[in-house]
């Protein structure tokens, strides 16, 4: 089993901070140990770290967008009161939500109504 030089580890921590790669900074030593034990090629090691960095960035982006959207907590289609908007078909909305053919086709799905409605 290989051991990481403490100077190299410290330099790497500084560089990962500078490059703004927090997930890799957090995980690299654990993955390095696993890679050493299992004999991973360098490409597999880097790919595993990169996958986690991308996933963490996606998670943070979604979290940031949800905060920015200021959506009411617990609002779901199931809790929406369709009776307050009779021109919207509950069956049609639920069918669109259940399927993803509109996504596969690259189509847009836009729902809009009067501003300020807190249904």
Global Rg: 23 Å
Number of strands: 0
Largest sheet entry: none
The H/E string reads HHHHH
Structural class: mainly alpha
State the helix count: 5
* Helical coverage, percent range: 55-70%
Percentage beta strand: under 5%
Mean pLDDT: 86
Q: Give the overall shape.
A: elongated
Q: Extract low-pLDDT stretches.
A: none
Distance between the termini: 60 Å
List keywords for this structure.
5 helices, 119 residues, mainly alpha, 0% strand
Architecture blueprint of SSEs:
Layout (H helix, E strand, L loop, with lengths): L5 H13 L3 H17 L3 H28 L20 H9 L2 H4 L15
Written account of the structure:
By secondary structure, this protein is mainly alpha-helical. The protein contains five helices and no strands. The protein has helices at residues 6-18, 22-38, 42-69, 90-98, 101-104. Helix 1 (6-18) packs antiparallel against helix 2 (22-38) and helix 2 (22-38) runs antiparallel to helix 3. The radius of gyration is 23 Å and the shape is elongated. The mean pLDDT is 86.
Short description:
This protein is mainly alpha-helical and 119 residues long. The protein has 5 helices and no strands.
